[in-house]
Design a protein that fits this description.
Structural class: mainly alpha
Order of helices and strands: HHHHHH
Number of helices: 6
Largest sheet: none
Helix content: 40-55%
Shape: globular
Radius of gyration: 22 Å
Length: 168
């Protein structure tokens, strides 16, 4: 009889599937598991509180009614929620300061952080820093670029929160 100093039980290696990248017994390499479409729940690192889904139309209306001041609130709240959710990012106070002092950086920072939420879950980034080019290059043309930028960014953020269990 052989004694072992290892207290862990021996598991059957044939029972566990091979890790990604390891050839399967029948040949080929198993594909990584991916979540379904944008509304499918995304698995990933442990997360904090879920953010609020904000209607794009309501946000645009509030921006018009408040002569643009609502955008500062939107930047503060969305960045604060993303920071609380992941522990990463610039957070609300820094986002507000940047929006007031050097607002041109926010159309690049915000979609980059939203895309980072998806990236943490192993999903493709629907928006990123390059999305800010809509704002920069076409913002002057009757605000078309700014509206496209906001619809894309807020839409991606809303889809992410919904995939985490937020309700509209």
């Amino acid at each position: 009889m052989t004694e072992s100093n290892d207290p862990t039980p021996v598991s059957d290696p044939a029972a566990a599937p091979p890790p990604y990248g390891t050839p399967a017994p029948g040949g080929g390499v198993p594909a990584p598991a991916m979540a379904g479409g944008p509304l499918a729940p995304m698995a990933g690192p442990a997360d904090g509180p879920i953010g609020k889904v904000r209607s794009t139309g309501t946000c645009v209306l509030l921006t018009i009614v408040t002569l643009g001041f609502y955008t500062w609130y939107w930047y503060y709240k969305t960045h604060d929620e993303m920071k609380q959710h992941t522990g990463n990012g610039i957070g609300g106070p820094i986002a507000l300061i940047l929006a007031i002092l050097v607002g041109i950086v926010m159309p690049f920072l915000t979609p980059n952080e939203v895309g980072g939420l998806y990236e943490r879950k192993g999903q493709p980034k629907p928006v990123g820093a390059a999305t800010g080019l809509w704002y920069l290059l076409l913002g002057w043309f009757f605000l078309v670029g700014a509206i496209v930028w906001f619809v894309k960014t807020n839409g991606a953020l809303n889809e992410y929160w919904k995939s985490q269990g937020a309700t509209a």
